[in-house]
UniProtKB/TrEMBL annotation:
Disordered: region residues: 62-81, 123-164
Entry's family note: Belongs to the HOATZ family.
Keyword Heme: no
Key words of the record: Cell projection, Cilium, Flagellum
This protein's name: Cilia- and flagella-associated protein HOATZ
Species of origin: Carassius auratus (Goldfish)
InterPro entries according to UniProt: HOATZ-like
Statement: the UniProt record of this protein carries the keyword NADP: no
Basic and acidic residues bias (residue ranges): 154-164
Gene Ontology biological-process annotations: cilium assembly
Polar residues: bias regions: 66-77
Length: 164
């Protein structure tokens, strides 16, 4: 009887394999690998269909048991110390930040002073250069005046002088 049941089970399994796994044109080795692969997979149901999930909170937390008053006084003194420490740290950070801004302002003033000095030097050099240009320009004018010029050249010279 057990042999008959085993044969029936094997026949039904063979029929199921025929219905659900079809590998046309594949070698027997590929078919065997594919069957092993697909039989090893088990898909998890979507999170919505699970009754219990780790990432969904199932119930509210239990109420905490009241501690002794000594523990609360210790917590209060610790929280005061923590507040004082945090306040000191905050004040130190503010002071460092203020110092950094003061240093930046000093550096900015130094840069502005340097730029002003360079500008004054440049203006001084330009003034000296302008004085030499006008002297040289007068010498050129004197040289041109000594030579006889045609009337068109004289007119051009007057127009150039008007532009200056």
């Amino acid at each position: 009887m057990t042999e008959e049941l085993d044969e029936e089970v094997l026949d039904s399994l063979a029929e199921l394999d025929k219905l659900y796994t079809v590998f046309d044109g594949a070698s027997q080795e590929d078919v065997a690998y594919a069957k092993v692969f697909w039989s090893s997979l088990s898909l998890q149901p979507p999170i919505e269909s699970r009754l219990v999930s780790a990432d969904i909170r199932q119930r509210l937390r239990a109420a905490k048991t009241p501690h002794s008053t000594h523990a609360t006084t210790n917590k209060a003194s610790l929280s005061k110390r923590d507040d004082e420490i945090q306040q000191d740290v905050y004040l130190n950070q503010k002071q460092e930040e203020r110092q950094k801004y003061i240093e930046m302002a000093k550096k900015r003033e130094q840069i502005i002073a340097l730029l002003k000095k360079q500008r004054d030097e440049r203006i001084k050099k330009e003034m000296i250069s302008d004085q030499n240009k006008t002297r040289n320009g007068n010498l050129v004018d004197k040289r041109l005046a000594s030579k006889p010029l045609s009337s068109s050249v004289d007119e051009e010279k007057k127009e150039v002088q008007k532009l200056q």
